[in-house]
Write a structure and sequence with these properties.
The chain has three helices and four strands; from the N terminus they run E-E-E-E-H-H-H. It is α+β, with helices and mostly antiparallel strands. It has one domain (13-95): Ribosomal protein L28/L24 (Ribosomal Protein L24e, Chain: T). The longest helix has 17 residues, at 79-95. The radius of gyration is 17 Å and the shape is elongated. It comes from Candidatus Arcanibacter lacustris. Belongs to the bacterial ribosomal protein bL28 family.
Length: 96
């Protein structure tokens, strides 16, 4: 399982640990990923996603999963998030 956020695509970064004597050793910066079930209001179903805590805060600020996906651009979303977004857009169009 890849260490990548399903919504934002945030992934592992690499860098160096630098000691006092200026020796450099490789280090991996892992994203803080959480497995959560997020509820979609328009689809009336939940989605089990592995998302970063940054994405979770963004979802809460935007007022839910539906609003977050509809307001974000397609280039910033992963393929799984794009498929959920398309389903939400279809459901919103049907309700209108």
């Amino acid at each position: 399982m890849a260490r990548r956020c399903n919504l934002t695509g945030k992934a592992v970064l690499s860098g160096n640990n630098v000691s006092h004597s200026n020796r450099k050793t490789k280090k991996r910066f892992l994203p803080n990923l959480q497995k959560l079930s997020l509820l979609s209001d328009s689809l009336a179903s939940s989605f089990r996603l592995r998302i970063s805590t940054h994405a979770l805060r963004s979802i809460e600020v935007n007022g839910g999963l539906d609003n977050y996906l509809l307001s974000s651009s397609n280039t910033n979303l992963s393929s799984e998030a794009l498929s959920i977004k398309k389903r939400i857009q279809k459901a919103v169009q049907i309700k209108e």
